[in-house]
Amino acid sequence: MAEPIKKISVRIGGMSYQLVSAENEIYTRQIAAKADEMIRRMMQNNPQLSLNMAGILALVNSLDELSRVLQQHGALENQKNEAEKQAAEARKELMRMREQNWEMKKELLRLNARLQELESLLAQKTPAAPQAQASPPSPPSPVRTEPADIDFNDDKAYAEDSAANGTAAHLTQTNLDDYLRAGKWQNPPEHHADVKPESR
Q1: pTM across the whole model
Q2: Would you list the domain boundaries of the chain?
Q3: Position with higher pLDDT, 5 vs 108
């Protein structure tokens, strides 16, 4: 509900005025006090000015201040609009990045599921490798020893040769078993030479 119009008595530049306003009385008096201050400052700086001239210069200064304030307000409003525009673009970019992130997560889940499926198929198709069993070492081949062939003709020749050199032959066994048991075929008989003293 609008406040009723009021008449407010104020003093500006040493003169009384009746201001009619629907605004709050406190606000109206603050404006009147501001106008009175401006006129007093103008007359102090320029004592030759009349009250009317000081009022006009105060009005010009007030309009200048108002214009500057409006310009600053316009600049702030432009900055506000630009900031809101950038904020809207940032929110739009954020939504786009969230959607892209969600799509990447879904693709990652799909690829992981596909990878598990392929690994399962590969495990089913790959036969299990048989466990290597250590084969027991082969037993060493038995060493067979056979008696060497003995040529009795060589023994006969040996006996004849010994007799020719004056050496008595001690091999009288004719039986092969006795000869082998005697072991004399490994140790040949010693040769005994007859030594005769020299005659002087």
Answers
A1: 0.43
A2: 6-87
A3: 108
